[in-house]
Protein 1
Amino acid sequence: TEGTRGGHQIPPMLRLMSSDLVLDEPDDFGMEDLPALSRLVHWAGMLGSRVLLSSATLPPALIEGLFQAYLAGRQQFQQHRGRPGQPLNVCCAWFDEFSAEASEHCAAESYRAEHQNFVQKRLARLARAEARRHAEILPLPIAQAKREIVCAELAHALRPQMSRLHQLNGTVDPASGKKISFGLVRFANINPLVAVAQELIRLGAENGQRIHLCVYHSRHPLLVRSAIENRLDRLLNRKQPQAVFAEPEIQQALAAGPEADHLFVVLATAVAEVGRDHDYDWAIVEPSSMRSIIQLAGRVRRHRPEAYAPTNLLLLDTNIQHLTTGISQPAFLRPGFESSNPAARNFRLLSHRLAELLTPEQLKAIDASSRIRERDALSPTGNLVDLEHARLRELMQGPSSGQTPHSLPVPLWWATGAHLSGYLQRRDPFRLDKLGRQRYGLLPDEDGEIGFYRFGDDGKPVAVDNLLHRISLEPGPGLGFWGEPDYPAALASLAERLDMELRDCAEKFGVLDLPLKSVEGGLRVDEEWWYCSALGFWQKK
């Protein structure tokens, strides 16, 4: 709906004029995307559309800011399309699993009061809900070092904790008497995830155990990622808890060795948090933001609402970024809300240890409570939750009186004449990728050998095998892979099922987008990549 030249924005605006706008998980967008999102909501108000925000973790600053954007747009719609003298009243409604409420509002103050009233009722109901997730902070006595050293030490720290969570939360197969559990270990970024996975693979499982490992992130070829997600969607549907033991591949895994304990472990990035209806028995989380922790916790015992007592969620007390750079550099960013701007000292945490950044109440209830309500007095430099609320409030509503803004607040779009120029659209576009991304693919040649190809601007693939380093893995004792298919076999099976030529199928489903390294003098500089079918693509940096 935004155009700075030409008329390409006209068809989307006409579409929006005759549509409702549904924003699913709007709080999942990064800070850099919220200005564009607010402009879209403002356009929806001007064009007379209705807007639905769908999420369990909507912070008040974000909701109030988007309401103000919509209200400003609706005022323009009312002026030109309403009846003369008719007052502006926006019909607003709130829905959750407990109730639904509706009221009309013409000012941000009355809307804020009604929203807070709804939140208070929801908090009271959440407080009475059966507790099924219990979190602990896991101290990491790892000294600051290079990333490969930190990741290796972290793998050694994780393995016994995975075993402990398995013993606490596993389920016994009634047929074989073996215990299984499904666990998720979530990392903030792909490259450290792969480094930890490699060390875990080398270590293998503890005595009497077998680990079935699945590495799940966005840098798998399309058909591989789809196969992983299909398998996880099927096996992690725990609405009938005993049904998983009837799955042939689970029985096959249990019969493959004499071990009495089987850990099905998914190492994943944020792709496991949002939009995946998975139910895990336990999880370990590398922290990046409180929102991420809450979303991840929602995947633990997701389909089993009954009360549950054992510890099933471990929060690493810091992240890999802090262990490699120390307190002098921000660690809870990309992803996270800490600011990298040296001038924004009020958005830089004084500690990167969760034990010092979360209150006992915030740690006790890992649910939407801390996200949907602000504390009366925010401490953005000393509390992880307050940091998120403070940054969102400054961006969505502007700085407090007497404070200097560290970013352009989104109300500038409708409160000034900035919309008459294209400056804000160019400054804060949606999903800006400064370096850009390049499409690559694993394609078969005439002899059926799989090669690495880059797709040019004309869409034609060019061989770039010199950019790819293939590695093989030698798993330690008691460790195998689970979840990922063998790429050539999966490609052949898919081509046969779709009645396609193998090469055509690979060019459509064996592709993925990878970031560019840099652009020098207007020329693209390609990155070197490492690849393994079980680990996907990653970089050694």
Note: The chain has 18 helices and 21 strands.
Protein 2
Amino acid sequence: MRTIAVILAAGCLLAASSTPAPAQQQAFSDEAVEKAIERGVKFLLSQQRENGSWPPFGEPGQNYHASGPTALATYALLESGISPQDERMAKALDWMAQTPENMTYSLGLRCSAWQIANVTTRKKYYKLLAKEARMLYSGTKSGSYSYSVPTGGGDNSNSQYGLLGVWAAARGDVEVPKQYWQLVLSHWLRCQNPDGGWTYSGSGESTATMTAAGVASLFVCFDNIFAAKFAECGSDFRLSAIDKGLEWFDRNFLGTLTGKVPMGIGGLDYYLYGVERVGLASGYKYFGKADWYKLGATQLVRSQSAQGAWGGGYGSIVNTSFALLFLVRGRNPVLFNKLEYEGDWNNRPRDLASLTGWLSQTFEITVNWQIVNLRVPIRELHDAPILYIAGSKAPTFTDEQLEKLREYVWQGGTLFSCRECGGREFGTGIREVYKKLFPQYELVDCGPEHEINDVYFQLKGRPKFSMISNGIRPLVIHTDEDLPMEWQLQRYATKRREFEAAANVFMYVTDRGTLRRRATSLWPEAPEFTAART
């Protein structure tokens, strides 16, 4: 069974499909994704009306969303890098502020837009965020939602967006009653199918879109309820419902893309945005053997129309917004890879989830994390500049695995290890690993005067770092202090230094914050060619 890990999710509306478009028969590349994003952004902006809005969805009295498409398009454009101070975004946000709304999809999306806009506007939209989040968390009695609030209950599609709106508010410093998270958790646990998936109405065959909704929703609740259960190493607590949901994705992800597994409500774009939320929330780069981002991005690049849109049953504005959110959010830089190895590598399953969330908010640049193992080619480790290794017991690696770790470092990566729960076995064991990896170099205490202590935050020698350097850059950074515990417990204020320490590692390794996009590597692949002669 999978064990739980990572962060990040958010909310969005309705559903999507795609109209036929000229096939762009190119393999996945960061350049192709970049162009697709640029064209998608250009299309959405071309559809914005003079008053700052986009056309509504539905007809009055019939699932009518006055501001939902505007909230979704605004959210997608903000995530794509357009500033909320940009005149076009400011007009859209002001229009929403003047347009009352009580529809669940629309409120969830509006909260997502308010939250991201607040990051760079000194919380200009905080009151709106708090007001609409209150409508959502006080508008459900069962933990589920129908199309409008208040509601007595409803379907799982509305329910995921009601929750994601509240979660956006929580990330935006809005206080949410603790019982709300438990109420929502109970709903999603009640309606999970025995196979690990979910349906739209709570009965019938599991579908891909609703299973994505269920897993992402459980991760949100998990982070807000169970963080403290992992203060000690060796905890046997796991939310098995998440494991079952992830196993469903392992079995069915490829089948969904090829039409062998029911997609459920919505189309490809709606589904892929759900996949992105699950991928980022879980930290897993693969579902089964499939790289979810590369496969999803390839399909989107090939199905984009000549005008830059993605079409379908819910219209090009909704579908294009979903597609952009998948491409942009899934492409954000991965700062840490967490190494899955033979041993207690996952004592704190949400440590990097909390840490990267804090780093994203602190530096106003979204960074992600993911889980990797040493069964994959070395190139797959280069999504992130830092390979994070944690534990309390001595780690064991085969000679082949040690060679991969060594090669990763020689190709530009850095190992960052933390001892958990005062585990002497890990402290001793990881030092033995480093001696095998780099016998020509020594792990040396940094001391309070080392640059890592003041590269950004002033740490004054705490925590104590040790380092292996080749005289040019760090190969290994290690600390015997249990930083992961404070990250796991989300002690952003009382243990801020532990978060700042990780930020300094990030700044020191990446030359003060220089990052590359996910699924790109500075290390070239060996070229394929046929020799003219030998």
Note: The chain has a mean pLDDT of 90.
Protein 3
Amino acid sequence: MARIRRPLVAIFALAATALLWMSGGCGSNKDSTLGGDDSNAQDASTIGDDAGGGSSSGVPGFGSSGGGPIFTPGDAGPASNCPPGSPLSCYVNMNCAGGAQTTLSGKVYDPAGKNPIANVVVFVPNDVTMLPRITAGTNTCSTCDTPVGNYVTAALTDSTGTFTLKGVPTGTNLPLVIQIGKWRRILSVPSVADCKTTTLPSTGANQARLPKNQQEGDMPQMALLTGGLDDLGCFLTKVGLDPKEYSAPHGGGRLDVYQGLGLLGAPGPGLSSGAAGNCQNTSCPLWASKASLESYDIVFLACEGATDDPDDEGDGGGLNFGGGGANVTKAGKQAMHDWLDEGGKVFATHFHYTWFKNGPPDFQSVATWLGSSVGSGTCTNCSLDTTLQSGKNFQTWLQSVGALSGTGITLNGVADSVSAVNTATTARWIYGSSGPGTGAMDTKYLSFETPIGGLPVDAGESSGKEYCGKAVFTDLHAGGAPSGDIPGQCKSADLTAQEKALEYLIFDLASCVSDESQPPKLPPQPPK
């Protein structure tokens, strides 16, 4: 793949880094606050964003006298030497005996609290009230770069979701931020022992997991097109997305639901808690224009049982396959292309190959497209492509969650839409034969960065390209055919091995664009 010079999460300078102290000095009562007075502050271990669903300003009121957790320096270490107004970095004990450090370790889990998540940035902010705003939607390339702000210490979770922070401030109610892309949650660690290692619990209220809803933290604004052959809607509830985040388009939830097509033109699943957007014809409002897509950070396209694209009739994947109507248009494909070029993210399954195979020429070039196939195959011990660092990390993660069979993974309900990928532009994650007539090297999951070929690097860079968005395509289905309207008809169940693979790849998509051939990098500190 082409080299990407952008770090995992880009950082910008903050206007201020000093803590706001509401009472007392360090040496006497030591009570300190991490924000201004806010009567809406939550007295809990997490702080959510604004209920309006538009954007988040981080954590107004966290640690304030209005009821949020208050950081209190510990009795040991440097607390007595820190004057009022000191940043949290002042409370790091640099003189532990025998070269010891104050450390904090644990694992970060998905919103359901079941599976660990890799490549999450975990950090202690110098001022939790100054965390950069996360704004929903994507309309410029810079929105891929979600800043984390000024921090005392930071780490990335490894391929098993594990992290260790070194040089941690000593005290109680320590703010801890976990963030991947626009998913962000803030915890209050009850106590951090001086010059020792504190380990977060793997279950319970103090478990480090991503937010389930907006009350728990920041989340990307997502859209889901339902389809008759893929249960992506219920899959997301298994990942841990709160059902109350399912809403009509622009209805305030973090997952806007659009009703697509099913077999023979029947409607796909609707929204059980309201009116889904109507995408059962060529006037689908989701991809009506680039501007309509710009409301979202990530778009999920569930298999509808056909491409429903007049441009694909000749391959048997369009109007003549399944007898359905059309909802994909040339204008829609161009809008999707242009939105991805400016930083959008799309997750497309099976017959949604049409967005690429029959899209603009540069999208057609990312792989060798085979066209229509029935998604009923089985790929026994499908191979994982470990030629790139991302593939090696993927394999390690699958092993850690018990999803591997041998060195590969067994997949069901698999189609055969792609043979090879263009290695100059595209990463192959999973490949193998899914039945008679399919090739042993046929691709089952791929991803590529946009715009194809990249953008010129910033002034002063010597080589390489920069990218804004990312598209993924998979011939895997999430749990088979839907059982009804979502989320009302969704059943509680653990993820299968196949669904665990999709979960990893969805959170990989949510993170900022990175070089798949290199290990992820920690964000640097903002410039002084």
Note: Confidence is low (pLDDT under 50) at residues 1-67.
